[in-house]
Amino acid sequence: MTVRVIEKNCIACGLCVQACPFEALEVKGDVAVVDPDKCTNCGDCVEICPADALALDEPPKEMTKKEIKSVEDNEAAAKEIKKELKEYNGIWIFIEQMDGKPAPVSWELLGEGARLAKQIDTELVGVLIGDKVASLAGEAFSYGADKVYLVENPLLKNYVTEPYTKVLVNLCKKYKPEIFLFGATSLGRDIAGAVATQLQTGLTADCTELTVDESSRYLMQTRPAFGGNIMATIVCRHRRPQMATVRPRVMSMPERQDGRTGEIIREDMDLKQEEILTRIIEVIEEKGSAVYLDKAEIIVAAGRGIGSKTNLKVIEELSEVLGGTVAASRAAVEAGWFEHTYQVGQTGVTVRPKVYFAVGISGAIQHLVGMQTSDVIVAINNDPDAPIFKFATFGIVGDYATVVPALTGEFKKRLNEEGLR
Amino acid sequence: MHIVVCVKQVPDTTEVRVDPETNTLIREGVPSIINPYDAHAVEAAVSLKEKYGGKVTVISMGPPQAEEVMRRSIAIGADEGILLSDRNFAGSDTLATSYILAQGIQRVSDKEPVDLVLCGKQAIDGDTAQVGPGIAVRLNIPQLTYVMEIEEVDLESKEIIVHRKLEDKKVRVACRFPALLTVVRDINEIRYSSLPDLIKSARYKPKLWTQKELGLDLQQIGLKGSPTSVSKIFAPPQRSEGEIIPGGQDNPNEAAKVLVQKLLSTKIIANK
Amino acid sequence: MTEKFDVIVVGAGPAGISTALTTTKAGLNTILIERGDFPGSKNVMGGVLYRHPTEQIVPEFYKVAPLERHIIEQRMWILDEDSAVTLGYKASRYGAEPYNAFTVLRARFDRWLATQAVEAGVLLITETVVEDLLIENDRVVGVRTGRPDGDVYGNVVVLAEGVNSILTQKAGLKKDGLKTTELAVAVKEVIGLPKEKIEDRFNLEQGQGVTIELVGDSTKGMVGTGFIYTNTDSISVGVGALLSQMVRKEINPNELLEHLKNHPMVRPLLEGGETKEYLGHMIPEGGYHSIPKLYRDGLLVVGDAAQFVNGIHREGSNMAMLSGKMAAETIIDAHKMGEFDERALSHYEKTLENSFILKDLQKYQNASELFETHDHFFSLYPQMINKAAHEFTTIDSIPKKEKQNKILKDITAQRSKFKLIKDMYRGWRVMG
To answer: Most buried by CB count within 10 Å: which residue of B142, C226, C333, C399?
Structure first.
């Protein structure tokens, strides 16, 4: 059994040579050549070939004893890899917390994890580390975890990369998860790369969609690249755990089931103060500051249509009621109503909030590129032909001076009612 | 201080498009630039050199054309550039890339000990932000990501104080070096190079190190050394026209009610 | 202090690159300063590149340079509102090496040409504007750029700054500045079309190209022309007219282009195409009388900055490249002598006078003025030619002699026999 080279297509790029786990391919002259003794028909080279120059062949009619033996040897090697992978089980979710406050993405991931765990019939585990955080284990069970690995240590009170990494790496080596997910927060993206490198395994960043192939148990990880211009689906075939950081607020928050319980497994970790070379001096809260526009979840942006600086008051009020941040289009900045740090768009900041209110903003392409990946865009503009209405999830054609205060009032009322303030 | 900065040549992603029919990248005519975050890292390194004395070496893994970003770095004020280039590096994912760069930095450090490694937060093509932390692990030095300000360097006690930018707060942290920092754009403005620096950079030829020279393990580089691989590439779904809520002009209160109801029911505003 | 160079060239267009390439090949330390992101980023042309002159700069360039199509046919259309009288010349021998002319896209071609210069040793600095000249004791000794520590000194400065000849004026070489009668404004669109379609529509084989100059209705009677050039997988369509006339008639170039694109003879050629790019630029149109003084102590002027454009024959890039080469040769000789004063550099003008550049511009020196003051050459005459052709080709039952008389009568009704003859005489005179 061997892969077949379609010589007229082959461009001798050598990618198949690198892809082959069994070193069965080499480039001789201007064409690839297969060593039939080494080839196991695994197909990795067929997938990677950019020129469609490789194909899985029909099995030959008769094989010599030698051929049969070598095929058996290769299949045995492939089985070895598969056997090793079988030792890895379970979907782990990193429960992120700061000062005992959990990051909501952790629960979103438990929700997603539960769905995946069911598909491949495995356990869902929460990994919780910190100091005096045991109560969060209960939360994890309420959101769907079957088991929680808990590591508590005063040295883990504040997040520092190295001790947290050490703990997670040791847990992974001991308990061998097949999938390990983190929120793609600044903390998650800080630690995941360190853990994956220590474990010499694959990590995919900022995923927006996860599916699992039930037969191969491969996690199919979809994420944006090239600044969001393309989507790529990534797979980590032969290393474990398959690791990914997942974009917050993309997966839905699962239903909370109070009273649900699970198994807590405590682990002690030997950590030494002298080994920790980083110390936190202070934390400075800066809610609503323009500096954090790129991470803001709710943005109320004002454009030229506002007319003057004094009219900004209604914008600020809406933003305040929603706990959001104000922002500006270039026109508003150039009119002197905002500093440049508040500018959203091609020559300003790119934002990705849950909701982006575009008030009095026409929607020129240069502004659009800065906010088009917002989850929801609400456009308020007097001009029904404004281009922004072509992209907005919701639009209201009217005078912002009446519409925005109406929104503020309604939000105040409803949010008070629902006790969310 | 000896500071090493990792830089990458990337396509200008504001100009990259996907052909929706073939689902392949249209890269023709897209200019190559220095990864913007890396340029900020070079600027930060040069500023530190100017304040505390020392040397700035830039290092990059890329094809021969990546010479261009070495020159750009010299124009900003770096002293030396090293390009790690080899056909065997092609197809490397972040794990393989951090291996290659770490080995390169180690070799630099063997000759002249390195105090700080600076990287940009992420590359604008891969958008992973994983290579910096990978390098830190391999060099066995502490890492500090999302650095928005370098407050102070104490050469005596070998400690650096930085501000890290989190979602809605910043954290002042002190760290012993050698250490690795990844920086965000807020950290500085890139200087307008002087003419002498521009002339120097136009003439500059970086050092070239290949896989053989670095003595790299072939199993850890290229496709072989990459646990992750791309299964599929496709164009993102286009944003389509949404819903206009009527009554904006005649009955704004009613329109507002309807909109708020819709927003709250999708739980976007509640998911806090 | 920045090092001192033998030659400082301002502007990396065809003229500047040709100058720098030639001086560097002779071993002179040359710096080429360009304000755009890369050479070509600020340059616009129709545009047609001629093989023979370009080979003087890079022999056999056509084997490796990024060219669009090689031209095998040149057409001229004299347009009325909805008709055209056409002329053309097609030669199969232009279809084989070494070829005669090519269509090019400047952003690609200039970039390539600059690479040849850099590989030969030119120090290319981009994204840098030369703001002023450095003058000491009445001699130009260098330039001042907008960068920190931005002064650079050299034995000779060559101004290849293009039609916006600010530094040439600062150098006192063009006392009365640029007049609107000496400039044309042109705009063009690059319209994408599959190569098979282009070859089909224009009756070409693979790689072959066509140029069409459009006179008359294309410029709404103003002095100027429209053009359609075939690129590999796009069409360059554009139009330009004398600035003074556009100002007087209050017509803007975009209007002209839209009008041209919709002309019934033009529209079908562009059908189904997708606009990829929109560009505009000024073109020197003043001819011989508008040429500034070309040199002074330590300074030479080449290309568009020297107004070396012959609009009648569609020549500009070749004059730019060759004037650059001539300037370089003068500098190489001066360098040997160690003298860079006005006397040493005057040889440049002499070379130009003996070349087609000044000879041709001199030949047509009165053409601009005649056409500007006698706009019937671009309005009435194209109309009349079309009318006559229409009359001639319409088969009805009117006897031919009557038809002939009718044509003559129509013509002379618009312009008297006497004036006609005077125009023809004058036209013959200015065209030399």
So the answer is: C226
